Every structure is written in structure tokens, then in C-alpha cells.
Amino acid sequence: MTKIILFNKPFGVLSQFTDKGTAGSAHRTLSEFIDVPDVYAAGRLDKDSEGLLVLTDNGRLQSRISDPKFKTSKTYWVQVEGVPSDACLQDLRNGVRLKDGMTRPADVKQMDEPVGLWPRNPPVRFRKTVADSWLEITISEGRNRQVRRMTAAVGCPTLRLVRYRVGEWTIDGVANGEWVAV
Question: Is the C or the N end of the chain the one with fewer CB within 10 Å?
């Protein structure tokens, strides 16, 4: 039977079980949180991002989730610096030109800060003179740091990035730093 684990990854944790960085590196890894043999992350979530990470022991499922050719959609809650104009939002919806080419169109909505969102440690920097706002962005590809690069390209850099959904799975009911088997 296929193992599927939904993990709500905290900020600062690598999406791997070992840290193969430089000698003496003290990065936190999945092994601090998950003690289930033979499961691996289906896709990545960078160290500076939080939220849903799907792990499985099924290579085909892992590929279906992480390979862009399958177009598995992923939804992110994104705190951005500034308040995006309608034109900026439309640019995200149409696709944004990045150094590695045009992105696919994204589904983008303005939103309030998510209810029940855990505090980030360390907190996001706060500046009295610069507003921030929240967006819900759904993409169907997974380039390296794609959402961050997209928001920066339209003039609204990402301050906080939380992956809420991957395909049919969400972080609903999974506390930050916790996991559930489905």
C-alpha cells in the first residue's frame, strides 16, 4: 500500500532528510520531524518557504506530483511587499517573463491574511512606511523559486510564502511542524 504523508514544513527546514551542505552546517531537515522509513519528498519547498510538503514511497506518484509535464496545481498564500495594482495582478494571471522564459498563466486572487496562520519564526520584517498584502496564487509548474520570482517581476517582492495545496491535498488540520498519513 502506498504511503502518503502530508507535512506542514516550518520556515528554515530543508526539504530533505540529510544536510549535505558544507561541513558543520546546522540546517534543520525533515529527519527532525518525520521518522517514517522509505518516504521521500514529492517536489521541493525551499528553506525560506513554509507549508505543505507531500512525501511518499511511490516513485510514480512522486513523479506525477513533481514533474511539470503533469501540471499538478499548487496553491500558495503569499505575503507581498506593497499592494499590487490591477495591472500587476493581470500580469501574474497572463504569465510573467522570467530569465528562464514565460511562466504559465497563474490563478491569482487578493486575500486577507489566512485565518489561523501560525506565527513565523523568525517573524517577517515589518516596516511602518511600507504596506504589505496577501495573495493566493495557483500555478501548474514548479520552477526554482518561481512564485518569489514572479511577484518580484511585477514589483511586489515576496515576504512570506506558504504552500497551502498540492493537487488534492491541503494543510487543513495539519499544524506547522506536524504531519499526517493519508
Answer: N
